Amino acid sequence: MRKAEIARKTKETDITLTLDLDGGNRQIDTGIGFFDHMLGSFAVHGGFGLSIRCKGDLQVDGHHTVEDCGIVLGQAIAQCLGDKAGIARFGQAFVPMDEALGFCALDISGRPYLVFDAPMPQPMCGQYDTCLTVEFMRALAVNAGLTLHLKCEYGDNAHHITEALYKALARALRQAVAVTGGGVLSAKGVL
Question: If we measure between CA atoms, which residue out of 95, 118, 103, 109 comes closest to residue 45?
Answer without folding.
Answer: 95
